[in-house]
Fold each of these.
Amino acid sequence: MKLERQTDARWWQRGVIYQIYPRSFHDMNGDGVGDLAGVIHRLPYLAELGVDAIWLSPVFRSPMADFGYDISDYKTIDPLFGTLEDCDRLVEAAHAQGLKVILDLVPNHTSDQHPWFTESRAGRANPKRDWYIWRDGAPDGGAPNNWLSDFGGSAWQYDPASDQYYYHAFLASQPDLNWRNPEVRAAIYDVMRFWLARGIDGFRVDVIWHLIKDDQFRDNPVNPAFGAGSPPHNAVIPLYTADRPEVHEVIAEMRSVIDEFAGRLLIGEIYLPIEKLVAYYGRDLSGVHLPFNFALLSAPWEAGSLAKLIADYEAALPTGGWPNWVLGNHDRPRIAGRIGPRQARLGAMLLLTLRGTPTIYYGDEIGLQQVAIPLERLHDPVATSVPDHALGRDGCRTPMQWDGSAYAGFSAVEPWLPLSDDWRERNAAEQKHDQRSIYWLYRRLIELRRSNQVLLQGSYRTILARGDLLLFIREYSGHRLLVALNLGNDPASLNFEEGTLRGRLVLSSSLDREDEDVDGRLDLRDAEGVIISLSQDAEV
Ligand code: NOJ
């Protein structure tokens, strides 16, 4: 079913976003770490996969304490990744191949090596002192209050030279900027304009819900649900350190900067419950275009739970707010590790058939596994700072597996993180040869989505969520697609009343049932999902 081409939706509503973790995508200069030249080299792969935009995790100058999320110069590319010219070349080459480029903006904090911070810590009278969040210690001499760092311990770092503390939501080497200071805002908006003027298509904004902190510095409430196994910072509820009402005013300003340039996109990284998340569309949609919806990252892989979270999300969206879905990222365990390689195929089908913009994490399209990293090769500061290493993120950041040659075609030398053990069989080149691979499933799903107005714009309705079965309908302009997912590992059959289920199977997750007629009965193999184009007269 191909309907007339949609004209009013914007590119980021029609498109599929693909997240690249540049350190791990492709290494061209032979230092074991991916780089911009490597991304350029692999653009044809992405164009062929069919995605519309790439988002690069940070590539700016950085001491790499948090692998680029600690920036010491917002307007320079770190030499590890290349040069500004490489970045310009990347944008040009991507555009030539029909791909948009989204950069990562990290405005909440800088590196402690950023000149702004060097000045700020130079003394209480320094003009940049108020660019960061400095406080006197508590009367007893300890930290100013009980705020905790997401990466463990107090969020306050003592500076003996000035006898004050500065606030850091993450590492002590990532001091938080003071977003109540108009000069800070102007400086970051200047950074945004610098990149937008170079032709990039938008930003994903790091921890956008953290930007503003309580101006009275009140203690966060103790978390009664905190228990064994919880990350240490969950000991308190971040009531006064994140999701403050004033943050929306700042985001609306960022949005105005974006809107100075035609057709650009603003995405917010926000981990909040759905009812709070949707506030980030902003009053009258003056906020981010897409507040990243991370509900699938931790959802139990179970029909009832999935149906509920989809329904809750759909119901919470503001009028005109465009939905989006994320299945993996550089901070969370890989989907194939979480639900297993067979169910990962259904994850792909769900991601690409739900209503809204999907974001694919690099490597998920080949079913890349969560990799167990030996202790001596751990890099992530979260892994090395938390005693049992359980929260470490290295396992989802391992090199892309391109082919069966040495180091999986990622690099000519030993990569910075180990490859997954299965790289000889699980790689893009092998999967391209196998028309039933997960790679081909992604490709076919993206292709179907791209040309199908029902998937692009249709409404969403769950029709069954029971046991292992999740069935939903997308509908647009009288055309309907039924998506049926068997989330279990046993075959399942469904008998529909006469006349209710009639149509043609357009895609199955096993990629071998296309064009089957469906009439009354639906047979699903174990861990199989299908998309059925319903006949006009089917009364489902
Ligand atoms: C969120 C990023 O996704 C994560 O990788 C990083 O460590 C923190 N923000 C701090 O910047």
Note: Residues 459-534 form a domain with the Immunoglobulin-like fold (CATH 2.60.40.1180).
Amino acid sequence: MLCYGVEMLDEQIERIRNEFESDTQRARSPQDLHNKYLGRKSGLVTLLLKQLQQVPAAEKPNAGKRINELKLEVEAGLDRLESEAAAQALAVRLESERVDVTLPGNRRPAGHAHPLTLVRSEIEEIFSFMGYSVEDGPEIESAFYNFEALNIPEHHPARDSQDTFYISDSLLLRTHTSPVQIRTMQKQRPPLRIICPGKVYRRDNPDATHSPAFQQIEGLAVDEGLTFRDFKGTLEFFLKSFFSQKTRVRFRPSYFAFTEPSAEVDISCIFCSGAGCRVCKASGWVEMLGAGMVDPAVFRYVDYDPEKLAGFAFGLGIERFAMLKYSVNNIQHFYDSDLRFLEQF
Ligand code: FA5
């Protein structure tokens, strides 16, 4: 391999150039070729550069220039090979990892609100529109707020109609949301327009329309000069907004210890439009609410002046509204957590 003449050096340059060219034609890895031609100890071009010392001084600049040209050619060739190899590797990877973006994806199940929550929100929206605010109260309640302050003293027969879970002699699970009326009137001066949604408890056996734990919404308006007409108009507006404008509303005399006069509020059956069917037991009407004008005795408990003020109140079962709205024939479906049922809403 050693040479001392310029001609021999030229021959070697040409031979290495040809060899490099044929090497690059054959598929060899750029790293192997780098070692073969530019390796620090025995690369062919490196050895050639070392031989430069033995070239006569006059020829050195010229010889060095040509070896350098060869070196640059080899480096450029290797760069080209490397980028070709990288492009080829990328093409192979892209092919093996090809994704068909037109294939349908895996649909993730999305959660949503429970039907009772949907109904509660809708009722809250209707009353917010009429200027009512939402109030809250405790589920563990005293007998005073749940009964006495609502004009239901001990041994009053009205207590029997709401069979109660007692925690102690004076503490109980509230049987209705009406105690929140009292708590709110104690806190706020009139005028007052509130609704109070929440869970209530009664010792009722579970059946298609009863549950020992269920949800109510209480409503209360108090102001000077409120009349039975305001009471009727408000509930009619609410019931027509919730069900449909075609719904007819009827007020039947009833009894609640804390309202006078009291009423049960019915709507024309939304299934048969009042013609009579199984849901309305052929009567054409379905009972929806308990309600009435606030009894002056209740105002006295909270230090409101019954001579100046008038008010109306109402209470409804959220489950009952949900059953009618969504045609659900058994209240228990709302508590069974069966996704086949819940996914329909
Ligand atoms: C009351 O609870 C009164 N506090 C309502 C009221 C408020 C009247 C303000 C006047 C003024 P009642 O006991 O009727 O009323 O219950 C109201 C609603 O709760 C019923 O119409 C019914 O839809 C629902 N309800 C009663 N018991 C159950 C139960 N065990 N399971 C599911 N819903 C029930």
Note: The first strand starts at residue 133 and ends at 134.
